[in-house]
Amino acid sequence: MTRHTATFTPADLTRRQKKELRRQIAQGAPPERPARSSRKDRSLPEAAVPGPFGPGLVQGGYWNLAKAVIPAHQATSQHIAGIYPFVADSGLGHRGPILGVDLNADALWHFSPWEAYVDSTERGTFSTNILVLGAYRGGKSATVKTLATRSIAFGHQVVVPSDPKGEWVAVAEAIPGGRVIRLGGGTGTRLNPLDRGPRRTDTTDEQHEQMVKQRRIGTLIALIEMTLGSRLTAVEHAAILDALDRCIEHTGDQPTLRGVYEQLGHLAADTDAAFHAADGAIQPRFVLRRFVEGDLSGLFEDASTVTFDQDAPIVVTDTSELFARGDLAAQLTQVCSTAWIQAVISDRAAHRTRYVVREEGWRDMTSLASLQMFQQWLKLSRHYGISNIVILHKMGDLDAVGDADSLQRSLAYSIVGDIENKFIFRVNHQEQTALRTRLNLPAPHVEMARLLRKGEFLAYVGQYSYLVDCFATSTPWEYDLFATDDAVTPADHDDAELRLIDPTTLDTYWPDPDPIPETSLDGWLLPDTRDLTEEL
Prior knowledge:
ATP-binding protein, P-loop_NTPase
């Protein structure tokens, strides 16, 4: 039905008023309804079911005229934050060399322990030392080599006091200016762990002499206690100190292990010495005899034949020839070579930052004296501009330090736990408890550490953690140079393929038929050849 509307407009209205009246009438008029049409006119199939539901436009389907209602998504703020890319972690910034890719932020991950130490924000750290922990073939060595070699371009020097497997030698030889010091194997190279070292700047004569004396005494005590497996008595301490003073006086402040060994012999022969020094000189003298006349002779008992190159980008001490002589020889070698290098690089006024890579780090913590030296060296690392990289395969390596519940083992776990910067690679199932109790890692992180791929690691820098893939940025040159399992190669053929054997070849492997047994009927009828054989 059509509706008609009549309007009456007063004659005295202006043009603007008439326009406004027509606008009001148009707003008040009801909307015109469209003409109704059938489903057939709209080319729609007839509804099989009365109501808004009916068969769909596609055979076998249904369509609904009702408006779709989608409920709002509900989740915790922690999970909902993962939807938005702009809430990803910002990382450590762009200072320092690129070490890998931050898998959480999908960005390059730069790292430098010195840059993190001077960072005054909440992402800063209070230590420059790094703990590297992970199972075999997890990518630890390759990652440390990547960090060390890329840091050379930033002016940092790399020092490896003891390379037990010789894997750093190839790296030093590949870098222009790299220096390799080889011990053993008939090289004739000797290192004197009692060297004075360069004069430290900004120290008085008294302070310098005291530091040199303490380092020499600490080295001697660490060597002797490590060999004896027990702590020295007060008389033995006095005998070692007396022998060192005599050696310094006799050699003009150039003491050696041979000189201390000879002075201990003089003390042992002097029965009239005060405080029974003769009794205290016997055990230390037997220990030093191993360096003078035993299996470690020709390495550390006399004056050094080489000098430390402070201008070289990387200095590696190759001790792979000595580690085949047993664990004790390896530990003594590591203490001597480390003491010789520490005497040179512990100069703050040199204004040189260095990485000190400690392969098989547990060997530096095998006695109480070596533990105390190691702890002091870690504490003074910031003062000397040094970053100690301690590499362990598992926390169980520290079980070789002392007895269970001993002071040595507790101190070793305390030292490792206090290292603030940690790189955790793939670990075995047995390490879960140790990571939670010793390193205080969260349970989800421990579970994640068991599933890491080669080259991936959890990085703990200060109060923040990152998931980094080092091999994502490795070049082919680096990957080939840093590979440590190149001795294990895949098979040159696939044993799963079916290989047919020639029948004639198979017959050659087939055994001959057994002779006819004598118990059979034919055997009874055949002549007995045993008697003929015996007669022949």
